[in-house]
């Protein structure tokens, strides 16, 4: 039997885009929204994706355990299961080059739960990057809303992501978007726990971990 994850992984970019806007206005300018598989990205678009990722994230390498390893990151970014939702400025004439102003990279996958050998279908958000000059216009919110719509349509249980604790701006943003600390996050403490079993000791030891796993249940 084909699983929901396999079904979503097989879906074409056109199928994922169904029902979503392909052109929207922000701050009085029009932007194109396009869903693409990693294998459908042109070489110039790959370069723009890498440049935007580098512009936004390189600064975190000095203050966190996040390692700057371009070959390994590019392998992850352009893996065959990676899907993109790219936002580009719409040129006025044919000659005007489109600027990539934001993108998300996501995959459909199985993710651990707190129960042994129990996995959930998730839309895993690997990247959400908005270029500096285009922030606070509502682009991030619309991208999250689109991913929620895709996740619901393809029957994923949650959207999940990993965020560095040092990235306070992103944490505030995800909080506004309705994300919570996921029970599998290293520093998650079960509010119903009594504080005297072995597993909770393990949780305490992990408090120094510099990232969080956030999720939002899709219904
Ligand atoms: C985090 C990020 C994606 C937000 O995108 P954005 O397009 O600026 O967000 P929006 O304009 O859609 O903002 C939605 C809401 O989040 C709030 N918000 C966005 N960035 C925020 C920040 N840095 N601090 C506090 N609140 C923020 C907005 O004020 C808005 O709230 P409102 O509804 O009360 O007006 C963007 O800042 C970014 O790309 N940062 C660098 C890359 C990064 O850290 N990505 C996440 C890696 S996990």
Automatic annotation (TrEMBL):
GO terms for molecular function: histone H2A acetyltransferase activity; histone H4 acetyltransferase activity; protein N-terminal-serine acetyltransferase activity. Residues 43-204 form the N-acetyltransferase domain. It is an enzyme of class 2 (transferase). Keywords: Acyltransferase, Cytoplasm, Nucleus, Transferase. InterPro entries: Acyl_CoA_acyltransferase, GNAT_dom, NAA40. Its EC number is 2.3.1.257. GO terms for cellular component: cytoplasm; nucleus. It catalyses: N-terminal L-seryl-[histone H2A] + acetyl-CoA = N-terminal N(alpha)-acetyl-L-seryl-[histone H2A] + CoA + H(+); N-terminal L-seryl-[histone H4] + acetyl-CoA = N-terminal N(alpha)-acetyl-L-seryl-[histone H4] + CoA + H(+). It is found in: Cytoplasm; Nucleus. PANTHER family: N-ALPHA-ACETYLTRANSFERASE 40 (PTHR20531). Belongs to the acetyltransferase family. NAA40 subfamily. This is N-alpha-acetyltransferase 40. It comes from Botryobasidium botryosum (strain FD-172 SS1).
